[in-house]
Design goal:
By secondary structure, the protein is of the alpha/beta class. The protein is built from 15 helices and 17 strands. The two termini are 53 Å apart. Bound molecules: adenosine-5'-diphosphate and magnesium ion. Magnesium ion binds next to helix 2.
Length: 507
C-alpha cells in the first residue's frame, strides 16, 4: 500500500482530517478506500476519503492577502498550496474483520491508499457480486440471506440499472438455490439474454374482472363494468355448457343461442377455483358474448338504451380483443409452475397494455403466496420487477397490493423483491420502507434523493456526489452490504445479448 498522507489534529471516531502528501495528490480520489495505521495505539482502521480540498495558506478565501495583488508572488511559490481531506472511518480492522469504530485514530498516523484487493486482508464473507469498488477493485458481496429483505436499484434512465440486475440474476442462479421470475417491462432488457426462458404476455389469460376492465376500456364502457363482468361469467358458464364437461364441439353447435341460454343461473355450477384455466380452454366469439351481455344486463335491470349502447360499442371496438383470447393458452398458475420447473422465467410484458401487465404481476405474486397460504411452503423465489414504479405506485391497484404484501411479509416466507426504477418517489411508502438493500446511482431529481435519504443511511453522500457518477457506477448500501456503509461500486461488464431480439422467443 502506498502512503498518501497523515492524520491531522482533530480526529474523531468517525472522521479523521488528513493532510495529503504533495506527491500523492494525483493518486487520491473522492471515495478511495484507505487504511489508517495507528502505531501509537497499535490499531488499523478502514475508511473512505471524502471532501478532498485544495488549500493555500497564503490565500485564505475570506481575507485579502498580499498574494492577491501580486501575481508574480503567486507564481513563485507554487508548492505552497496543499491538499487535505477527511477519512470517513468505516471501522477498526482486526484480523481481516471489521469492528465498529470506537476511538479516534491518533494524529500523525499514516494513511495508506488501497490500490488493489491484495493490499488489505479484508474478510467480507461470501455472496453475490455485481461489481467491485471503483478504485481498489475490492469485491463487496451481498449475502444471499438478505434476498428476502428486498433490493432496490435506483438511478436515472441509462445509469445501468437493468444491466446491474442482469448481473445480480446471474449471481443468484450461479451461487444460490433461489428461483427467479423477471418481469421485463420493456421486453428489451432481459428477454434477449434468456431467449429460451421467455413467456410472451399476450399468451396469458386474464381473470374475468380484468378481462371486464379491458373490454370496458377498449369500448369506453367503464361505467358499465357491473354488467360486463357478470356477463363474462355467464358466457363462460354457457360456453362450458354449465359444467366443465362441455366440449368445444358442443359449444360450436350451439352457436345460435336464444336469450335464455346465457344466464347468471348457470354460473352457480361453474368451478371458479381455476376459472382462467376454463377460459383458456374454451372458444371466444364476439356474437354469443354480446348475446350474453344483452341477456345478463337485462336480468340485472339495465335500461334498453344502456343495453343497446353496450352491444353497439362492444361490437365496434372489442372484436379484436375477444378474438385474441383464443390465443391465450397460459394462466398465471402455469407461470408459477414453470418457475418451479425451470428456476428462471422471464415474462415479456411489452406485448400487452398496462392494465394487463399489472394483472400478470399481481397474479403471479399471488400464485407464490398461495403456496405459502395453502401449503405452508417457502417459495424461495426472487421476483424481479424492472421499471417497478409502474407496478408499486400508489395508484397501481392490484399489483401494488401484491407487492406490498411481499415487501412486508416476504422475509418470513422467502419471497424477495428486486425493484429497479428511476422513480422510487412513486413507490408506495409501505414498499419503500421495506426495501433494505439499495444500489443507487445518479438520480433523476433532488426529490428522488430526499426520498432515498428518508429510507437509508447514506453515510454522508450528497446529491452532488451522485450527480457525478457515470454509467455503471452505483453506491451499494443497506442491510446486504457487509461493510454496513455505502460503497462505490463499478458494475461488472454485462455484454450485449447474443441473439437478435424475438428471433428465438418462446419455447
Ligand atoms: N454493466 C454494464 N456492462 C456493459 N454495459 C453497460 C453496463 N451498464 C450499463 N451499460 C450500458 O449502458 C446502457 C444503459 O444501461 P441500462 O442497464 O439499460 O440502464 P437503465 O436500466 O438504468 O436505463 C446499456 O445499454 C449499456 O450500453
Ligand atoms: Mg432499465
Amino acid at each position: 500500500m502506498r502512503s498518501v498522507g497523515v492524520v491531522a489534529s482533530g480526529s474523531r471516531s468517525f472522521y479523521a482530517p488528513v493532510l495529503i502528501y504533495k506527491e500523492a495528490e494525483h493518486l487520491v480520489r473522492e471515495e478511495s478506500l484507505v487504511v489508517i495505521r495507528d502505531r501509537v495505539a497499535d490499531k488499523r482502521y478502514l475508511g473512505i476519503l471524502r471532501w478532498l480540498t485544495k488549500m493555500d495558506p497564503l490565500l485564505p478565501s475570506t481575507q485579502r492577502s498580499g498574494v492577491v495583488d501580486n501575481p508574480r508572488l503567486a507564481e513563485m511559490a507554487t508548492n505552497v498550496p496543499f491538499e487535505n481531506s477527511y477519512v470517513r472511518i468505516i471501522g477498526g480492522l482486526r484480523g481481516g474483520k471489521l469492528e465498529p469504530p470506537a476511538d479516534p485514530p491518533t494524529p500523525r498516523s499514516e494513511v495508506l491508499l488501497i490500490e488493489s484487493p491484495g493490499d488489505v486482508a479484508l474478510d467480507l464473507g461470501e455472496g453475490l457480486i455485481v461489481g467491485e469498488h471503483k478504485y481498489s477493485g475490492i469485491e463487496v458481496p451481498l449475502d444471499p440471506k438478505y434476498l428476502p429483505y428486498h433490493i432496490g436499484v435506483v438511478g436515472a434512465t441509462g445509469t445501468g440499472k437493468s444491466r446491474l440486475v442482469k448481473a445480480l440474476i446471474d449471481e443468484v442462479l450461479a451461487k444460490t438455490d433461489w428461483r427467479v421470475i423477471v418481469f421485463d417491462h420493456s421486453g428489451m432488457d432481459y428477454v434477449s439474454y434468456y431467449p429460451d426462458r421467455v413467456v410472451d404476455s399476450s399468451e396469458i389469460m386474464p381473470d374475468p374482472p380484468t378481462l371486464g376492465e379491458l373490454l370496458a376500456e377498449v369500448s369506453m364502457l367503464e361505467k358499465q363494468l357491473d354488467y360486463i363482468v357478470p356477463s363474462i361469467y355467464a358466457y363462460i358458464a354457457y360456453a362450458r355448457g354449465g359444467s366443465s364437461k362441455a366440449t368445444l364441439e358442443d359449444f360450436r353447435r350451439k352457436r345460435s343461442l336464444g336469450p335464455l341460454d346465457c344466464s347468471l343461473e348457470a354460473v352457480k355450477d361453474l368451478n371458479l377455483a381455476n376459472v382462467e384455466k376454463l377460459m383458456a380452454e374454451m372458444r371466444w366469439d364476439l356474437d354469443p358474448l354480446l348475446r350474453c351481455v344483452e341477456s345478463v344486463s337485462d336480468s340485472l335491470g339495465a335500461k334498453d338504451a344502456t343495453k343497446a349502447k353496450m352491444v353497439l360499442l362492444l361490437r365496434t371496438y372489442a372484436g379484436g380483443l375477444v378474438e385474441s383470447l383464443n390465443k391465450k393458452k397460459l394462466t398465471a398458475g402455469d407461470l408459477v409452475k414453470r418457475i418451479f420447473e425451470e428456476r428462471l422465467l422471464v415474462v415479456d410484458l411489452s406485448t400487452v397494455d398496462i392494465g394487463m401487465r399489472r394483472y400478470i404481476v399481481k397474479s403471479v405474486i399471488e400464485g407464490l403466496w398461495r403456496l405459502v397460504d395453502e401449503r405452508g411452503e417457502k417459495p424461495r423465489t426472487l421476483v424481479v420487477i424492472d421499471e417497478a414504479h409502474n407496478y408499486a405506485c400508489g395508484g397501481c391497484g392490484a399489483s401494488l397490493r401484491a407487492i406490498e404484501r411481499t415487501a412486508r411479509e416476504g422475509r418470513k416466507w422467502e419471497i424477495g423483491l428486486v425493484l429497479a426504477s428511476q422513480r422510487m418517489i412513486d413507490f408506495s411508502t409501505d414498499v419503500r420502507n421495506n426495501v433494505n438493500t439499495f444500489y443507487f446511482s445518479r438520480l433523476q431529481t433532488p426529490g428522488d434523493f430526499e426520498n432515498l435519504k428518508g429510507v437509508l443511511d447514506l453515510g454522508g453522500i450528497g446529491y452532488d456526489t451522485l450527480s457525478t457518477l457515470s454509467v455503471r457506477e452505483f453506491f451499494f448500501a443497506g442491510l446486504g452490504n457487509p461493510l454496513r456503509f455505502p460503497i462505490l461500486v463499478r458494475v461488472k461488464e454485462v455484454g450485449e445479448p447474443a441473439g437478435i431480439r424475438g428471433a428465438t422467443r418462446g419455447r
